[in-house]
Amino acid sequence: MTAAIIDGKAAAAALREQIATEVARLRETDDLQPGLAVVLVGEDPASQVYVRNKGRQTVEAGMLSHTHRLRDDTSETELLALVADLNADPTVHGILVQLPLPPQIDEQRVICAIDPAKDVDGFHPLNAGALANGDPGALAPCTPVGCLLLLREQFDNDLAGQHALVIGRSNIVGKPMAQLLLQESCTVTIAHSRTRDLPALCRHADIVVAAVGRPGMVRGDWLKPGAVVIDVGINRLPGEGDKARLVGDVAFAEAREVAGAITPVPGGVGPMTIACLLRNTVVAACRQAAVASRLA
Ligand SMILES: Nc1nc2c(c(=O)[nH]1)N[C@@H](CN(C=O)c1ccc(C(=O)N[C@@H](CCC(=O)O)C(=O)O)cc1)CN2
């Protein structure tokens, strides 16, 4: 079997088009222009690219974009003061602080300082708790929501009863991914570095979501034939010359001989992350303005 390639770039472009249409409607009929503030501390090269893309795609969707670039030696107090200003700014409906942060700043303290109504990353404990409670009002983290949208497409919107294995237990991907799949009535297993006999667990899974940050860890012979494989890993390995080569957490060439469908890296889950961020921002803006959203 050769797996179908799940085109995340195309799916993200389609989602961004829907968002742009909704934003145009909100601006026209409700005089509401959703605004997203993105904060970057330091000069991590990958983060700079992501933040630039977020700003560009926000503007392309017709929304207001505010980008704040802070020095690498910014103190936690300075960052918290900026977050407080953004919380109070009525033109800002969504706030995202790009991760990772430099070591002098406590990530969790910053996440907790963001107004949960503007927490378009869905990382605030109030949103994480709401997601775990199955509250439809929860703002859910963008990467797992992107994975879920790709999966729904593969299963014609019916994931009920599928055995899903989530490899990785981070607050950003693994845990919320498991919650979202549970809400779709999947049977969910969460695996991590201490899990015993991961290949055996994998062979039972109809859906595998790999989010461990270990290049090529999931091998082709771990997979159940026909499984749908979502690769969240973005690992930079030395490439030709001084260019890095991006690889996922799944050994792609092997896996595509066994899986039914698989996301590539790049061009799979990654592009969905920013599209879902725009979506969360529109949903957050509508709630703050007490206006109905057609995206929610
Ligand atoms: N506050 C947050 N920080 C981080 C998040 C997040 O969701 N919120 N996620 C990642 C980075 N990220 C978005 O911020 C992100 C990662 C990857 C992509 C993407 O489009 N990837 C491309 C490859 C691009 C490349 O060359 O690196 C792909 O996979 O095709 C978008 C956004 C960590 N920080």
From TrEMBL:
Its EC number is 1.5.1.5, 3.5.4.9. The keyword Secreted does not apply. SUPFAM superfamilies: Aminoacid dehydrogenase-like, N-terminal domain, NAD(P)-binding Rossmann-fold domains. GO terms for molecular function: methenyltetrahydrofolate cyclohydrolase activity; methylenetetrahydrofolate dehydrogenase (NADP+) activity. NADP(+) binds at G168, R169, S170, I234. It comes from the Bacteria. Transmembrane segments: none annotated. Signal peptide: none annotated. Pfam families: THF_DHG_CYH (PF00763), THF_DHG_CYH_C (PF02882). Pathway: One-carbon metabolism; tetrahydrofolate interconversion. Keywords: Amino-acid biosynthesis, Histidine biosynthesis, Hydrolase, Methionine biosynthesis, Multifunctional enzyme, NADP, One-carbon metabolism, Oxidoreductase, Purine biosynthesis. Residues 6-121 form the Tetrahydrofolate dehydrogenase/cyclohydrolase catalytic domain. The keyword Lipid metabolism does not apply. One of its GO terms (cellular component) is cytosol. One of its GO terms (biological process) is tetrahydrofolate interconversion. It catalyses: (6R)-5,10-methenyltetrahydrofolate + H2O = (6R)-10-formyltetrahydrofolate + H(+); (6R)-5,10-methylene-5,6,7,8-tetrahydrofolate + NADP(+) = (6R)-5,10-methenyltetrahydrofolate + NADPH. Residues 141-288 form the Tetrahydrofolate dehydrogenase/cyclohydrolase NAD(P)-binding domain. InterPro entries: Aminoacid_DH-like_N_sf, NAD(P)-bd_dom_sf, THF_DH/CycHdrlase, THF_DH/CycHdrlase_cat_dom, THF_DH/CycHdrlase_CS, THF_DH/CycHdrlase_NAD-bd_dom. Catalyzes the oxidation of 5,10-methylenetetrahydrofolate to 5,10-methenyltetrahydrofolate and then the hydrolysis of 5,10-methenyltetrahydrofolate to 10-formyltetrahydrofolate. HAMAP family: THF_DHG_CYH (MF_01576). PANTHER family: C-1-TETRAHYDROFOLATE SYNTHASE, CYTOPLASMIC, C-1-TETRAHYDROFOLATE SYNTHASE, CYTOPLASMIC-RELATED. Belongs to the tetrahydrofolate dehydrogenase/cyclohydrolase family. Homodimer. This is Bifunctional protein FolD. It comes from Pseudohaliea rubra DSM 19751. The gene is folD.
